[in-house]
Batch of 4 targets.
Target 1
Amino acid sequence: MSERTVLIVDDESAIRDMLRMALEIAEYNCIEAENIQQAYTQVIDKRPDMVLLDWMLPGGSGLELLRRLKRDDSTREVPVIMLTAKTAEDNVIQGLDVGADDYITKPFAPRELIARVRALLRRSGAGEEQGRLEVSGLVLDGDSRRIYIGDEPVDMGPTEFNLLQFFMSHPERAYTRGQLLDQVWGANVYVEERTVDVHIRRLRKALQRDEADYSGLIQTVRGTGYRFSSRGL
């Protein structure tokens, strides 16, 4: 079995069984919870590498648990994929805005689920040495997966970290949303291009400081996508 552990949070036992079977075939360890209270306890006690979180749960929504995880320093970095039957764009964007790293809409094929899980775990960068990048006082340490502005640490999620790492490694070039999806999410992962805009917004917010605002490094290129540039900062 893989050392990677995935927490499955869903109130329907048949769905948990299906998810567990697919994940175990792909050699992931699985733990389960059927409501947000059980799920939070599992996150604290078992420290999973990822959470698959259903939107609709008894005793409170998955969104409520997501907010709680992202508010807590000890659980903020745990990657979360939302499982949802809600296909309206506002609901999807709401989940991403709160801090979800990805979402998958029911019904879905086990193959797609595993592709999403693998891509997100890869983006969370466990054990990968990436080196150090620095631009105008903004420092990205790939080995420890930490960001600093001066000596101050910057909090951001794994997807925003990988976006910033890609941008800092490829400055002064405009990329389309599709190209960013391929480079950061992975070419075999099917994510809507609108998702890129949400994570760009979250990345810019993380880079905003009263004493040094670095959000302007991420530039919108009209008709194309985005570019990382220190010119004019």
Target 2
Amino acid sequence: MRRDVVRRLTEAGFVNAALEGRWLVEQVAGPSADMSVPLAPEDADRLDALLTRRLAGEPLWRVIGEREFWGLPFRLSPDTLEPRPDSETLIEAALATLGPRRGQPLTMLDLGTGTGCLLIAMLHECPAASGLGIDLSSGACEIARANALANGVGERCEIRQGQWTEGLDARFDLILSNPPYIPSRDIAGLDREVREHDPLLALDGGADGLAPYRIFARSLGGHLAPGGFVVLEIGAGQEGDVTAIMREAGWCHRATRRDLGDHPRALIFALH
């Protein structure tokens, strides 16, 4: 069972064939299954279907249907990005900035929420907080709502379809966003697993990749509560440009937090 899956992945050139093979088999048979026992015919068919998708180039976590973020499981759909470990840098930055405030009844806003991973992780860490996630995609909103319920924060988490802060009149103690930040011209050169399976809506940041930050610079101030702050994810080489855009609009750059590869990933801004 597992041996055949690993063999086929290895022959296809997958570097982590053994690990991926185990995950695919466990997705069907369960983590405690006896690997020496043949699968029932319907389970064998399901495993073969999953393997066929992976061999065709679909990313592993999309084949499995969920991915872990901040120790929590998140369902995926074609309308959402996969939560990635580097984005956990935003959670680290937000929690470090909050300090002892994390126990207070804070309000949080996540723009372009996708799976809801940023907002849900923060609500998980801040048990008295409540939050609103906004996404332009109705499919992403549906998945985010399901993930909020599955991770036990559904009663404190509202998900709304919309374009950034349009029509919003509330103020928040924390605003988070992992916006699309890839320049339009670079989309075609992305890795195949990203280019063909991640939603374009969540990737394309306009001509220079900075379009969302220009919107944030002029719009987020009206939605920040006194003492509040903003945490934004950025792409490679964007720290200087994003900081300049925000500063020109009156924002103070509080700090930068680096990701697992030691690249600037999370920028923290406040108005004072």
Target 3
Amino acid sequence: MEKIKVQDSVGAVLIHDMTQIIPGITKGPRFRKGHVVREEDIPVLLSMGKEHIYVWDQTPGLIHENEAAERLAKASCGPGITLDEPKEGKITFTAAQDGLLYVSEDGILALNSLEYIILSTLHNHRPVKKGAKIAGTRVVPLMIDETLVLEAERLANTFSTPLLEVRPLKSFKVGIVTTGSEVFQGRIQDKFGPVLKAKVEGWGSVVLGQTFASDDISMIQHSIRDHLNQGADMILVSGGMSVDPDDVTPTAIKEMGAELITYGAPVLPGAMFLLAYMGNIPILGLPGCVMYSKTTAFDLFAPRLLAGERLSRLDIVKTGHGGLCLDCPVCSYPHCSFGK
């Protein structure tokens, strides 16, 4: 701690809060601990009756918490994120656009393993809206050894992708194939179409069309190929996903030459979810729960596809940890444990 004249304090770091009292108007901290004194602060300090102030004794190799937080934030931040101004060694990250949050879990662990470094985030693959708070960083001491910050910056650069980014969802042309002889024959009303259309449009994509097929392998395959020929970027096949002998949707998809990624996901509801690819076009087999459950495996995986990912079986099976929906009376997803 060092006592210096106010007139000589530009660039110095305050070691405690300083209260300003204006009778009838305000009483509270005018300058916070850690504030870096600026030229325009001098008249204010003098008006507060301060001839001398106590500041941090500058030591070579130490940097101020605000500078350290700013460097950490910039090292961690990728596209689609806005950083606020540093305050008391803290910086808040907010989404600059609607999209899906991507977090490098290994990168966050690496940074937080360093002494005095803190980076706290929301969960990976969380849908976020523009302006939403998604992360925050800070350093613990008022002044921190710069070598720690340099090491954090080096670690962040060792990862192939940013530690944090918000990826926008692409606008896909989506074809819907609704299977089931009872629907195809008109014996019951289609309930899948309106649900899927609302979800697709809510994600910013468009429904290219919806076709109906009976429980017939060749008819299902023909409907899928018809949407592909029309330029679909994604195919949703609803119904016929159970193990009943007359539920032939998985067989139809596999036998048309698609690359099967998974038939089954460790997610409830949505265990009978199917993902396959025809070239680069994802085909999603959707179980009946998508029709009546507010949030299912479909809501976890479709946005990641729309964000440009090509999902593997490992990506699917990892969701078992957190893949249990609690069926809350009022669904609050994504503000809950589902898919985390």
Target 4
Amino acid sequence: MRFDVITLFPELFEPFLGSGVTRRAYATGLVQVNLWNPRDFAEGNYRRIDDRPFGGGPGMVMMAEPLGLCLAQIRSDRAEASPAPVVLFSPLGPALNHAAVEAWSASAGAVLLCGRYEGVDQRFIDAHVTHQISLGDFVLSGGEIAAMALLDAVARLQPGVLNDEGSHQFDSFNPALDGLLDCPHYTRPEVWAGAPVPEVLLSGHHGHIERWRRDQRLQITAQRRPELIDAARAAGRLDKRDEAALKAVKASEAGTAGPGRGKLL
């Protein structure tokens, strides 16, 4: 798959693309990333890509013309039968979630537009942008961090990128976990700062361990993201043992442990 990133700061991506486990996806070409600076398509000595907004107001707006020329070059370079989707990272879009990441990871890629300043000329958005994506209800100084978040999430789902092929199957929000949050994880030493590893994880009994992990996922999800429990229940993904575990969470919270501090095991 191929992602073309339109950004005024391509240097921000260089350490990102060469670091961490996901670098394998970029180095091997599983996820091809090309960086494009719209300033290269601007006119004049100053290569200006922004101007003051009509109607007044603070800040500057990215101009449609250099963005349009940059996108035209990208489309010529991609030489695809149908134009690739154009994604703008914006508060107007839906929040990025696991389902969207899975969809993009199975796609042929997209053009990612990293906005800056007060935004992008609406005429370019109306003419070319096919998707808008948000990371949440907050504002960043530009779309680069959001683009990296999408690229990283997509890259780690590609075959051979993670050390353990099944690792991503146990991520939070993954349908393999019925959309629940992940459970706690522990490693050596067995006791750290007076806190021991839960005994069940040292038992070697795979059935007990899996049940403990499932119960922990249910507990954490019920406490932190109860709407995910509702969704799993509505989809018929919870069995009788799951419901019993959830009742234990409520009973524990109603007792001496206090809200949000109940323990299943």
